[in-house]
UniProtKB/TrEMBL annotation:
Similarity remark: Belongs to the ETS family.
The keyword Transport is annotated on this UniProt entry: no
Chief location category: nucleus
Gene Ontology terms for molecular function: DNA-binding transcription activator activity, RNA polymerase II-specific; sequence-specific double-stranded DNA binding
One GO process term, biological-process aspect: cell differentiation
GO cellular component terms, A-Z: nucleus
Protein name: ETS homologous factor
UniProt entry tagged with the keyword Glycoprotein: no
Region (Disordered): 178-203
InterPro entries linked: Ets_dom, ETS_fam, Pointed_dom, SAM/pointed_sf, WH-like_DNA-bd_sf, WH_DNA-bd_sf
Compartments in which it is found: Nucleus
Organism placement in taxonomy: Eukaryota, Metazoa, Chordata, Craniata, Vertebrata
Domain ETS residue range list: 206-288
Amino acid sequence: MILEGSGVMNLNSSNHLLHQQPAWTDSYPTCNVSSGFFGGQWHETHPQYWTKYQVWEWLQHLLDTNQLDANCIPFQEFDINGEHLCSMTLQEFSRAAGAAGQILYNNLQHLKWNGQCSSDPFQSTHNVIVKTEQADPSIMTTWKEDNYLYDANYGSTVEMMDSKTFCRAQISMTTTGHLPIDSPDLKKEQEHPAKSHPKKHNPRGTHLWEFIRDILLNPDKNPGLIKWEDRSEGIFRFLKSEAVAQLWGKKKNNSSMTYEKLSRAMRYYYKREILERVDGRRLVYKFGKNARGWRENEN
DNA sequence: TTAGAGTTTCCTGCTT
DNA sequence: CAAGCAGGAAACTCTA
């Protein structure tokens, strides 16, 4: 998983926006706990409301942005939701993730603080919009489709802020850090953003191959869409190719995505050695040497 | 403003 | 025959 919108960004409008809106509840106006198959993207939601999957997405993001070895963060120690995560102390982070615990803790505090000036539980439930999690991608709907969400607490629809603007604001604040964080890692990142994010380019969120990988790595959220054929070799097979394509389309806000188009993008990965061909087998692919994070004992 | 990355879309031909 | 594969070409979106 790669940072969406890396490095220094054009923050003028988003910074302005955030400075105008110091309360986290205002900075997460579109919080949609389970907007999609995986519960939406972690940076679209306040940490308090992350699902387990979003916690993992956040961990993966930190691995990427801090150039950490995958072994630095034992994911099994973070089989928890956002609420649990937010309740963890620095000591608990350190115990769970060792040296990386400090980074995790600082980043989480940063994210919480980023929008959260108040811990008022009323405020948090007032503005955060919750949707019931839907396991079946065929029936799921996203906020983009309807352009509004239903606020269960108040029985009303809420107009949405532009998600891209919101994400940019979130990520830029995370990566450039205008907040008083003492973490040396974050300071370093502020001083050398380009060095911290070498050749990261992920304009529209997670890459396709990472999206596929994450489905494979999260069987609880993978209702028979893709399965491992040979886990150790990184060989996998699409079981519901069109459903996966639809899911990818949802993620990219592209309702016309098909497996034919998705597979074309997959084939481009051959040249980059992110995927390898598996001859003679339909719907079967294999992770290549440039694909990271799919092995059970990565690195 | 521009170049490049990473798709997305469309296409033709081939294979299963 | 349908579905999937292969890969060229152009268009598109977004970031540095």
